[in-house]
From TrEMBL:
Database matches in PANTHER family: RIBOSOMAL PROTEIN S12 METHYLTHIOTRANSFERASE RIMO, RIBOSOMAL PROTEIN US12 METHYLTHIOTRANSFERASE RIMO
InterPro entries found in the cross-reference section: Methylthiotransferase_CS, Methylthiotransferase_N, Methylthiotransferase_N_sf, Ribosomal_uS12_MeSTrfase_RimO, rSAM, rSAM_horseshoe, rSAM_sf
Gene3D superfamilies: Methylthiotransferase, N-terminal domain, tm_1862 like domain
GO BP term, example: tRNA processing
Cellular component GO terms held in the UniProt record: cytosol
Pfam families found in the cross-reference section: UPF0004 (PF00919)
Protein name: Uncharacterized protein
Organism of derivation: marine metagenome
Domain Radical SAM core intervals: 148-213
Keywords for the protein's UniProt record, in alphabetical order: Cytoplasm, tRNA processing
Necessary cofactors: [4Fe-4S] cluster
Length: 213
């Protein structure tokens, strides 16, 4: 589980990452989005007003860890808002919404606008059922990442989704069809990291073999 720390003023927020390196990259994007909205990010092991859990769903154990992360967050602050996003949320949205204490469920594409959805949540009537925002998996984020906790190695996602539809795997449902980031976007992201002092860049994707420039 990766801990992300940034600064802001709206409240205290924590982003927890379960699963793969792609989830770690997306958690950094969510942390940046929250920081722009004036949230102060703290460790998931600390008290926070908002907990965002970026879930994995490759195994039943991964699903269990998401439910465990929700319970852990609420032990730290029983009044906190808890957002579940990621692959488990995408595939089993209403199951995630039924977890006691969950305030909001976001699909794989919606996680990039987490701050907007949290603002909507804070304005909503508390008596409403848990909001679920799941959409077709067709988009790619446009924003560039600023960096990672490590100052020596950065990760660049160049591809999302999978077309293989293997019967033993649920990732094609959680991530959608294969789609590639534009070459210009990839090069801008790499240059951003180089300019920030990173000496190593790791190329990542759900199915790198299907990348097309």
């Amino acid at each position: 589980m990766q801990n992300l720390n940034l600064s802001g003023a709206t409240g205290l927020a924590a982003v927890s990452t379960l699963g793969c390196k792609i989830n770690s990259i997306e958690s950094v994007a969510m942390a940046q989005d929250l920081a722009k909205d004036q949230w102060k990010l703290v460790s998931p092991t600390e008290y926070a007003d908002l907990y965002v859990i970026n879930s994995c769903t490759v195994t039943a154990e991964a699903d269990r860890q998401t439910r465990q992360a929700v319970r852990r967050a609420l032990r730290q602050n029983p009044l906190a808002q808890v957002v579940v996003t990621g692959c488990y949320a995408q595939n089993e949205a209403h199951e995630c919404a039924a977890i006691p204490g969950v305030s909001l469920v976001l699909g794989t594409d919606q996680k990039y606008a987490v701050a907007k959805f949290v603002r909507m949540l804070r304005k909503a009537d508390e008596s409403e059922r848990v909001p679920v925002h799941i959409d077709r998996l067709t988009s790619l984020p446009a924003a560039l990442l600023n960096g990672f906790d490590s100052r020596s190695r950065a990760f660049v996602q160049v591809q999302q989704g999978c077309d293989r539809s293997c019967t033993f795997c649920v990732i094609h449902r959680a991530r959608g069809p294969s789609r590639s980031f534009a070459e210009a976007h990839v090069l801008r992201q790499i240059q951003t990291f180089v300019d920030s002092g990173y000496r190593e860049v790791v190329i990542c994707g759900v199915d790198l073999g299907s990348y097309t420039a």
